[in-house]
Amino acid sequence: MRKSYHKLTKITIKGYKSISYDHPIELEIGDINILLGANGAGKSNIISFFKMVGYMMSGSLQQFIAKSGTNQQFLYYGAKKTPTLSAEIRFDGNKSYDIYRFYLTNAVPNRLIISSEEIEWEGTNDEGSRIIQLKSDFNESALVHHKGKVNNIVWDILSGCKVYQFSDSSAESPMRQASPKDSANYLQSAANNLASFLLFLKNNYNEHYERIVSYIREVVPQFKDFYLEADNGYVSLKWMDTSANDYVLSADQFSDGSIRFIALATLLLQPEETMPRVIIIDEPELGLHPYAIDQLTEMIKDASLHAQIIVATQSPALIDGFSANDVTIVERDEDVQCTIVRKLNDVDYAEWLKEYSLSELWNKNVIGGRPV
After folding, report:
1. Would you list the DSSP string of 37-53?
2. Coil/strand/helix, residue 269
3. Residue 284, preceding bond cis, omega within 30 degrees?
């Protein structure tokens, strides 16, 4: 069962990338959230927003902006049209709520400064809501250094929102490389420490490790088990196949789809104790066989018992594993030239769903989210 704690329930974004300040998006967040839309609709920009918040919670906002090259990339049609972007993030508990608001304003040269941060909260003692204005140094979020009961709740949840993307499966991919044994306390965003994290699970959460291995065997029939040992402080992703010999294979002998599925299985089947509070995954279906996508669907549902899951996808096979209630359509409105979102529900499409699957309704453009 899920622990009782505040959960992310709603995000309002204004002026970020393809999202207009005058036409903000409001994302209602449940346990499973499938963002469905065409190329260029803005799904990746929503994922990028979560990345930015992650950098803010680690005190690295300016580093994130510098890595992107210029602050103009974050502001809807640039600073001249949109000098400020803002967001409101809401968390709800059993009898209380917290809302975190921030405003990022254009500054020269190529910077976004935090012009305002505040937390609105209401507890369980019927005293009404209160607003706390946070005092930052403009460069980084005040949540990082100014602790307090309410601040800690917000920071803890937001710092537990992790974005994962396993699209790079090349020979030089971080997933295939040896990783330091001491980097194994959580799975990193590009699975840079996949080998050491798997060894950590094997040594400390063997039941979960064995479940990961069993799912991999279903998708990669020749896979038997990993061969994980630390050598000079580093762990390589080695494995054994089902042949009779004892030959140990290296990570580059996994196919692209296999290595991606291994990373996904490790992420979604890890124990609750190590799992992020919110898991955000961009296009997890890339390179996967249809049967692997079926397994991915089950793993997402399993992980949603312990974490909130947000997935951006274009996979018909993946969306057919979920209900309309789990799906948010992401589109670009050509009239106002910005990203818009619309959450589906089972009731509106009950008659359609008697005859058609969700993917068929998507292909017919009944639910939207298709190229115009």
Report:
1. --TTSSHHHHHHHHHHH
2. coil
3. no
pLDDT of amino acid 364: 92
How many CA atoms lie less than 13 Å away from 193 in the CB half-sphere? 18
pTM metric for this prediction: 0.94
Residue ranges of domains in the chain: 1-160+323-372
What the block records as the tokens of 98 is 């917290």
Closest CA to 103 of 124, 89, 123, 122: 89
Instruction: Give the pLDDT confidence of 328-354 residue by residue, as tens digits.
Output: 999 999 999 999 999 999 999 999 999
Cβ neighbours for 113, distance < 8 A, ≥ 6 positions apart: 104, 105, 107, 138, 139
- Residue with the two structure tokens 């769903």: 353
How far from 221 is each of 1, 30, 216, 287, 292, CA to CA, in Å? 32, 34, 8, 17, 12
Residue 239 C-beta-side C-alpha neighbours within 13 Å: 25
Q: Are 103 and 114 in contact (CB under 8 A)?
A: yes
Q: What are the residue ranges in the chain where pLDDT is below 70?
A: 1-4, 124-128, 146-150, 372
